[in-house]
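Exercise: predict the structure of this protein bound to calcium ion.
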Amino acid sequence: MSISGFIKSALERVSRNPASHVLDGLSGLSPRQRLQRAIDDIRGTMCPTARLALLLIDLDRFKLVNDLCGPAKGDAVLSIVAHDRLGRMHAARTLHLAADEFVCLLPFAEQDEDVAVGFAQQVQQVIGEPIHMGQHVIHLTTSIGLVTEDGPGRSADDLLHAASVALSHARQAGGDTVGRFSPDMFIDLGNRAELENDLRSSMMRGEILPYYQPIVRLDSGQPKGFEALVRWHHPRQGLIGPDRFLPIADDMGLDRDMLFMLLRQVCRDARNWPPHFTVSINISPSQLCDPDNAVMLLQILFASGLAPGRLIVEITESALIHNLASAQETIRSLRNTGIRVALDDFGTGYASLSRLCNLEIDHLKIDRTLIQSLNREAGRKLVKAVVDLGRSLSMPVTAEGIETPEQAQFLRDLDCTFGQGYYFGRPAPVTVAKASLLDLPA
Ligand code: C2E
Ligand code: CA
Ligand code: CA
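Solution:
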């Protein structure tokens, strides 16, 4: 959905959605009127120097919960969120806005704006507590758009509009985030609107393409393959990284087309590399949970003639949290053909050891934030623990984000198998990446 469409639909949901109900019993009014009424009520009880914060709360990827458990249990989950979780947040008034969206209205003292941010984080925490639904354990994450009044008397529409803009920022940041409204966000929205307009045509013109970053064997310094990282050569804005445009592709429903387009290109490129070279691609949690994607991915791979053993698919833990069964099914069908699967960004999220043991994966990739912490004793211990863990599970470990010879040496001393990072080479276009193979540091 486009940004303007998103804001418009948020406002329309308040005005039209007959299914919305308010938790505090303001019945008989349209949802929009209820929101305005709730705001008026609260203002009536606030001291004159107090301000109001509006939090627009959106459950991330809730569709996956419905897909996983079915709509009846999805409704039960929503009811738990509404009553059991948000019902505990006594400082605020809560309204159920639309299927998986809620609004909290929180009065706060004028000089104490951080209270609203702390409150938003508490909301994320209580909603994030595991929900047991039959054989499933659901860990929800939330994105929150937060707006605090800078003066008295802003209308419900006004506040909701600002909160919607802040929410779309939080979602663009990958979800599980609190976006706090600032007027600058409207400028970002303008940029985003430009990217939205251009994305489809850029895909058709081949302006979205893989860059390649080398992955090396740490003991010998020999390259073992590349990770493909997507880039956009934007006609006016120059080179744009994935963090800026993948969320847009996702919102516009273009992410599958982009995955398949990149995969075709990656397979074509990799066929020209030495035959023992692997190529890694990233697939997002929602792509991993859709079994149709595995079928398409295999079709593209087989049509390209690239040996499946040369392809590594990198996945992140969040897919496993949201929909373990579907993720496992996709992983299994990929691995059955000889494709290998790596767990990316390991060490940042929630991958519990028990989950890791049950997963059918081939590699671990240590997140670069852990490598950045190697200058501290605790960081070194943690990295050593992860490398040891990989070894005890017989999984080769790749350390990402290696930037210095000291980091490379430390990891080599730990017998970490592979390394990747600016020290060995930055992501580069295919021709540059291939040519750079001869210049890697030992
Ligand atoms: P990632 O999979 O963890 O990729 C590694 C990121 O770390 C890349 O950022 C890479 O440029 C950066 N990096 C590599 N070495 C170093 C280093 O030594 N220091 C520092 N500071 N950074 C380093 P990039 O290319 O911006 O990609 C960001 C994320 O976007 C990736 O994180 C991956 O999750 C996602 N991504 C990239 N390409 C694709 C894609 O084609 N599909 C999907 N679904 N996600 C992608
Ligand atoms: Ca990756
Ligand atoms: Ca990573």
